[in-house]
Design brief:
Layout (H helix, E strand, L loop, with lengths): L15 H5 L1 E7 L4 E7 L19 H4 L18 H31 L7 E6 L5 H10 L6 H11 L1 H4 L3 E6 L4 H6 L10 E5 L6 H10 L5 H10 L26 E5 L4 H15 L2 H10 L3 H14 L6 H14 L8 H5 L33 H8 L8 E4 L5 E4 L2 H8 L7
Antiparallel strand pairs: 1-2, 3-4, 5-6, 7-8
Length: 417
């Protein structure tokens, strides 16, 4: 029997608004979220009484294409485990040992630990930089790490302390000792022994000083000509003459520092001349009416002419006899011409004041640096009436009073000319 809608009772708890409209929430697949939707208004007056829901609805079949929602899970970091921890510990230990080894090697180099007790000579140039010093120390095996030495040098102002020159250092020196060993006051300078035979010329002396590494030859010539040495036996008026020191560098065996200055090297030899040419000799020269320079000129000729010490006073006598007893004091000594040849063939016609065949009296300067025996012979000559001498076959000389005697000997088989 049909139900009269007017007799249907309202559901309890619904308001007037709820009678016409009900609201519910549904999940929207396309947007992936929940949203509110309005349910269609129920028409109670035209309700046929059919059921609102189909209880036989197959939910799984109808929604089989809807993706399944899974709960969110947080990602977990992978764990290294026991083996990984051991490997990490080994890595840390190895790095630490490496760093410790590097630090120890650097410290050993700075402090000079573990090096041989061996002396090494180094030569610091006059225009050096600290990079140059680091290079030469490294090349000599005195340091292992140039960069560390340069750091130390910058910290200790080493460049201001180091001097140019040649020094003896030891491989077991620490950095501080190396720097101190290259200073002018604390350094052990390298020495060389240089012998100079009697009769060496100024040019020969300067060449030998250069050859032995004492000082450059060109710097020696510059100092010889222009440096004003403080010695009474030198004539200040000759300043500027490159040969002004000829005769006054006393021939002897000297110990020089390698890389000495030219003034230092020359002064050593001038000082020795001052010790040898005593005040007694100065007074003797005055008694004879000659200057110290005159005596050295005569001694230099004796030095280059004599074949033995015994004949030196006799050669001196011939020179003085010609100077003092001849109206035309021509010395005619071959050695004075040899001094000016400069590669030219020997000739008695060379127009030069050192040509004692052409110019009378003493030559303008010494022709060698005489030794003590020649100086004494010039100061204390024999007393003879001889005016000539000539070389014999034994390398010494025969002496003659007349030119005719000398010419006869020269034409004989005994002449050694």
């Amino acid at each position: 029997m049909p139900v009269d809608p007017k007799n249907i009772k309202k559901p309890p708890g619904l308001s007037q608004a709820a009678e016409s409209t009900a609201r519910f929430r549904t999940y929207d697949i396309s947007s992936g979220g929940w949203e509110k939707k309005e349910a269609p208004r129920r028409d109670f007056e035209n309700d046929t009484g059919a059921p609102d829901f189909d209880v036989d609805f197959d939910f799984d079949r109808e929604y089989k294409d809807v993706p399944e929602n899974k709960p969110l899970r947080f990602r977990r970091e992978r764990r290294t485990g026991c083996v990984g921890g051991i490997l990490y510990a080994v890595f840390v230990v190895c790095v630490s040992l490496l760093l410790a080894s590097l630090l120890w090697m650097a410290a050993a180099d700075v402090l000079g630990f573990g090096d041989d007790d061996e002396q090494v000579g180094v030569r610091v140039p006059s225009d050096f930089t600290i990079d140059d010093v680091a290079d030469l120390l490294y090349d000599a095996g005195l340091i292992r790490y140039k960069s560390i030495f340069k750091l130390y040098a910058g910290y200790s102002n080493a460049e201001e302390k180091i001097s140019s020159g040649s020094f003896i250092l030891n491989k077991n020196y620490d950095y501080r000792a190396l720097v101190y060993g290259m200073t002018a006051r604390g350094g052990s300078r390298v020495e060389t022994t240089v012998p100079f035979p009697e009769g060496f010329t100024l040019a020969e002396i300067f060449t030998r000083l250069d050859d032995f590494g004492v000082t450059p030859e060109n710097e020696l010539w510059e100092a010889a000509a222009n440096h004003e040495f403080n010695h009474d036996f030198l004539d200040s008026s000759t300043l500027g003459d490159r040969l002004r020191l000829e005769g006054f560098l006393f021939p002897d065996t000297y110990n020089f520092f390698i890389d000495s200055t030219p003034v230092q090297a020359i002064t050593r030899m001038l000082n020795q001349f001052g010790r040898v040419f005593t005040e007694e000799y100065v007074q003797r020269a005055e008694e004879m009416g000659y200057t110290v320079r005159d005596i050295i000129i005569i001694a230099s000729m004796i030095e280059r002419e004599a074949g033995s010490d015994e004949e030196r006073p006799r050669i001196a006598a011939v020179i003085y006899n010609r100077l003092n007893n001849w109206d035309n004091p021509i010395l005619q000594i071959d050695a004075t011409i040899s001094y000016i040849l400069d590669g030219r063939p020997f000739s008695t016609t060379i127009d030069n004041p050192f040509n004692t065949y052409m110019y009378p009296g003493l030559p303008p300067g010494p022709i060698s640096n005489p030794g003590l025996e020649s100086i004494r012979a010039a100061l204390y000559p024999e007393s003879t009436n001889e005016y000539y001498y000539a070389l014999n076959m034994e390398g010494t000389h025969n002496f003659f009073r007349t030119y005719e005697e000398q010419r006869a000997f020269v034409q004989s088989d005994d002449y050694g000319g």
